Every structure is written in C-alpha cells, then in structure tokens.
Amino acid sequence: MMPPGRFVPPDIRAAHQGGVLVLLYPVGELVHVVLTRRTETLGKHRGQISFPGGRVDAGDRDLIETALRETREELGVDVGAANLLGSLTPLYIPPSNYLIHPAVAALPGRPQFAPNPGEVAEVIEVALETLAAPEPRAVAPMPVVWNGTTFVIHVPYFAVGAHRVWGATAMVLSEFLELLAVSR
Question: Global pTM?
C-alpha cells in the first residue's frame, strides 16, 4: 500500500516522534479496528483518515504511552483495560516530518466513543475481515503538492465506506493484515 515514488530522506533523526494506536475490539463475532477522520481545522493531514495518535509529550514514558494517551484524548476511550499486543514498524511521513510508532492493543469489548470535536470529525469502525478481503483495495490518481509543485500519482488505498484510507494509515494497516495472515 506504499505510494509509488515515496521518498524518505537518508537522515530522519530530526523527525517529530509520534505514537499511533491500532485499537482492536469485538463487534458481534468480528474483530474491528477504529479509524478517525481528522477535522478540517487541524494543521496537518486535515480531513484525512488516520489512527488515533499524535506527538509525544514530555510526560509520556514511551511512544506506546503516547498512543494510549492520544487515543483517550481524541476518542474519549478508556484504554485502561487494553491488552497491549505489540508494536509495528515505525513509519516516516515526509509531508509532516513525523516518524510514527504504531502500537497494537485490544479491548475486551466495543468501547464507548466520545470523540473530541476539535480533532475528530468522524469515528470509523471497520471489521478486519472486510479489510483483509481483496475488494476494498484499489488505486486512484491523486494530486499531491510537494514544495509548491503539484504532481499526480496513482495511490493505493483501502475503500472503507465513502472513505479512502491511504498513505501511512494504509501502510500500517497493510503491515498488520500481513502479520495476521502469516500467523494463521
């Protein structure tokens, strides 16, 4: 799910550090993951589909704590009962100069969401079974502005309802789904 021509500079030591959470929980018989549509008022990645997460705070012990704290702040979810399952590969996001560290956790039941309206425009729940099927995977042309120049690239994405889940979120989801497939 990596877009063609994706460039990562050789030195990303100055990148902002962030934690995101792949939060799993049951809905009926199916395991779901939660995504958010970011508000149009945010400075970076406005309107995009993402995992809950954000920049590390000085009080965070580690990037997993960052991901859990940000999930509480953005979705109002009590993650105290979450079972931490592990971490995925850190991923650099060139447009915002972030290195995100995805953590994976599971809750025993469907959480009650109370999204922060300043950050979350929409809560999106999707079954892993749906994402693992070939049907939601597609490619579409997308204009991308980089250093003032607009390019059109063909971007892979997951079709989730009316949304296109692309970029870092799609790459993290793809890695997670591949790990699940290997473990079966």
Answer: 0.90
